[in-house]
Amino acid sequence: MTKQKGAFGAKLNRAVVKFSNNLIIKTVANGMMLTLPITIVGSLLMVIQMIPNLPEIISRACTMGTTVTSSFIAVYILLGMSYALAKEIKSDVPASMILSLASFFIVTPITDFDTGGDKLIQAIQLGYLGSKGIFVAMITAIVITWSFAKLSDKKITFKMPESVPPFIAKTFAAIVPAAILFAGMIIVSLLLSFTSFNNVHDLIYTLLQTPLEKLGGSIWSALLIMFISELLWWFGIHGSNVTASIITVLYASQAYANMEVVANGGTAQNIINSFFLDAYKGPRALAVAVILLFLSRSEKFKSIGKVSIIPSIFGITEPMKFGIPQILNPLLFIPLTLAAPLCIAIAYVATLIGFLPVVSLAVPKNLPTFLTGFMAGGWQGFVIQVIQFFAVVLLYLPFMKKLDSTEVITEAPEKETDSPVTMSEPEVLVSASESAVKKVEGLES
């Protein structure tokens, strides 16, 4: 049975590693990570904007910051993913980013606005640059960056004399691949203009983004992904890293749509989104650390609790995952895999009944526990994370108590062995006498 479990675990590990190392998956994960700083800054500005009686000049400044963040998020994602992919395949990074951005603008419709008189304004609607354009941005970044690298590898370019400086020669080398890709994107854009979709954005939004948003809007899909993430952890695989790209594809557009609506003075509607999942996975690490430190009797678990308590405040679980261990521990399978879905379900119900505000801003993942809830949902978010904390403690406690009792029994013989043997006073005198006799006999001999 143990051999079968080990063989299955090894196969699963290989499959997950292969999935994680897939070029597209790595590009999505790494590209989205590059947009995190600007997303968090925009979210912090949104928090400041919510402060009552804020001076108008500060309110306008915050509105400007959040609008630039949310309304252009597709552009930032495109640049981040193009950079990540070009670096991964060792292509020309600056050329790939510029070409991807230009290609994105080629397929993005430009609208004519008649202001009356002789003036005609041409503009790109912000919706195409915001949450609605995320999927087009992702596809464009991947296709253009990869195609540019392949065309460059085939040496389809102008050959410059050796006397030309390398920087100039490199610039001219990109002209032919860029021209080919430009022509291709123009043709695609023109062809789609004769269809009912009119442009690439509406095509992708209708055929791909809308169905994915409906799937991502389901609480059941969110609970399943949380379960899978922790199931992978049970096998010793970093589940959060594996599911990060899936969460991005399914839930990022809803998160940025919420951010965009709130930045424009509206009300967020998408309960399930990537910001929500990040904020309300629950204080699971702290709950387990508290059980180890304060509710355990074994020296091993108390020691692990002492080591883990500070990191757990910031959501770091590795000391407990490998120390207890939780990995491949049959007794902890249920609490480990169900804790995250339980926390998400609590936050979802609280939002559904109107107690918890819909999350519309990004909160840094490694902020202290309870502060993340407060930033994401005010005092209500703090209360929900406290409820989650006690729920996780109650979920883990019976299983941890069983483990703790077993560990106490294991440690008992060791304590008996380590304890010093004491002798009564007569025994000490006899022992000393025997020792003295032996010394005298040794001297006589």
From TrEMBL:
The chain crosses the membrane at residues 28-51, 57-81, 93-113, 133-151, 172-197, 217-235, 331-359, 379-397. One of its GO terms (cellular component) is plasma membrane. It is a multi-pass membrane protein. The keyword DNA-binding does not apply. Residues 411-433 are annotated as: Disordered. GO terms for molecular function: protein-N(PI)-phosphohistidine-sugar phosphotransferase activity. GO terms for biological process: phosphoenolpyruvate-dependent sugar phosphotransferase system. It is found in: Cell membrane. Keywords: Cell membrane, Membrane, Sugar transport, Transmembrane, Transmembrane helix, Transport. Residues 8-399 form the PTS EIIC type-3 domain. PROSITE patterns: PTS_EIIC_TYPE_3 (PS51105). The phosphoenolpyruvate-dependent sugar phosphotransferase system (PTS), a major carbohydrate active -transport system, catalyzes the phosphorylation of incoming sugar substrates concomitant with their translocation across the cell membrane. This is Permease IIC component. It comes from Enterococcus asini.
